Amino acid sequence: MEPFENLLLFIGLLGTILILEVVRLRAGSSSIKGKMRNAKKAPWDLQEFLSLNPSNPRRNDIYRFNEESVRSHAHRYVGRFDGAILHWEEVPILDMIIENKFPVSFLPEKVKGEDIFQAGLYALALVDTGVSCSNANLVIIYCLQDAAKKCLHGNSPKKCWDCRDGKIFSKKFDQRKIMKDLAKLNAVWYKKRNPRANPSEENCRPCPFSKNGKCNYSAI
Hints:
With 220 residues, the protein is α/β, with parallel strands linked by helices. Helices cover 39% and strands 23% of the residues. It is built from six helices and eight strands; from the N terminus they run H-E-H-E-E-E-H-E-H-E-H-H-E-E. The chain has helices at residues 2-38, 46-50, 113-128, 145-153, 175-189, 201-204; strands spanning 40-41, 63-72, 77-88, 92-101, 137-142, 167-172, 210-211, 214-215. Helix 3 crosses helix 5. It is globular.
């Protein structure tokens, strides 16, 4: 009977691990949605907020900023994020960057690498301005265009974090990885290095060096 009992114990252990992992992921998702839901619309623009004395914003308050431009002088790029949630402690703290994506026909099963990279660039630009981003999350919200249009034109009271029509993905901001990926792109754009071929349907669709879904550099 020992082998059978050991098998039951093993199955029980695996089940416990899976349950704990599901609870952890749901808790993380709930925490992110909770912050999105509870964040106040900032009464300042982003630059005003970053220049505030720490005693001005209340420490327990988190603020939402929409459609703000950021610039990285160190890495030579500018961008405009869809949304960001920040709060103040001794320094301004980034809780999350939020990017909205509107696919035409289907919602992805997993977050796209280029979308995480884009959100990561915004966080990296905020690092340049003195914002602490060590615990920031990169949040990508996917919603089909037709659903988004109905929501917009119907003046729906639903918010993205409470809506079941879309999908929300979150990933911890990894500054080192974003900088590594950016360095590869800079080598192409600024140092005129030919891109290395990595052709696939997923990679070629958004790639500026592709044509008709085929990699121009596949023979390199």
